[in-house]
Structure formats: structure tokens, C-alpha cells
């Protein structure tokens, strides 16, 4: 017979399952949510992960520079701004 804290947790979990009549309740993600999860959780090499980390740092630096006035939109070049706006919608 089990005793102690771990057994108490097991009993508590069993009682919760029993009170829900042994059914599993969850919200099935929408297609858009599944697509997003597939992107976020995709397999990546260390090089790919490193590139993403560096890109996130670079974009954060860019945003900070634009917000604090160290960088101006005109500094980026018309074509880069156009491409960025297109990507961001």
C-alpha cells in the first residue's frame, strides 16, 4: 500500500480523473494554430537555431534604435523598408 506525499498526489489525480468521469477534455487547435506549432516546433540544426537567435537580436537592436532615435527609417533604404513592410503586412 502506498504512503506519503507521492501517494497523496496520486490519489488526488485519480479523484480529479474520476470526477470528470474518466474523460479527457482538451481544446483541439485550429488549423492556423497547428500550422504555427509546426513552425515553432520544427526540427532545426544548431546553425539554424543560432541564425534565428542572431536575427532576433538584430531585429531587437533595430527596433530599439528606431525607437530611441539612434536610427532613422531613412537610414535603412527605401527597398529594405518596402520589403519589410510587405513581409509584416
Written description of the protein model:
The protein is elongated and about 70 Å long. Helix content is 71%, strand content 0%. The model has no long low-confidence stretch (mean pLDDT 93). The chain is built from five helices and no strands.
Descriptive terms for the model:
71% helix; mainly alpha; 89 residues
Give me the secondary-structure topology.
Elements (H helix, E strand, L loop, with lengths): L4 H15 L11 H10 L5 H23 L4 H4 L1 H11 L1
Largest sheet: none
Helical content (DSSP H or I, runs of 4+)? over 70%
Content of β-strand: under 5%
Q: What are the secondary-structure elements, in order, as H or E?
A: HHHHH
The coarse silhouette is elongated
Indicate the radius of gyration in whole angstroms.
Answer: 24 Å
The total of beta strands comes to 0
- Distance from N terminus to C terminus (CA atoms, Å) equals 61 Å
Q: SS-based structural class?
A: mainly alpha
What is the mean pLDDT?
93
Say what oligomer this is: single chain
> Spans with pLDDT under 50 lasting ≥5 residues?
none
Helix count from the secondary structure assignment: 5
Amino acid at each position: 500500500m502506498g504512503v506519503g506525499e507521492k501517494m497523496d498526489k496520486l490519489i488526488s489525480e485519480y479523484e480529479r480523473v474520476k470526477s470528470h468521469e474518466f474523460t479527457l477534455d482538451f481544446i483541439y487547435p485550429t488549423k492556423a494554430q497547428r500550422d504555427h506549432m509546426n513552425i515553432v516546433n520544427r526540427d532545426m540544426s544548431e546553425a539554424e537555431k543560432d541564425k534565428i537567435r542572431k536575427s532576433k537580436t538584430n531585429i531587437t537592436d533595430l527596433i530599439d534604435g528606431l525607437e530611441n532615435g539612434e536610427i532613422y527609417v531613412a537610414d535603412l533604404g527605401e527597398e529594405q523598408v518596402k520589403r519589410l513592410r510587405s513581409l509584416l503586412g
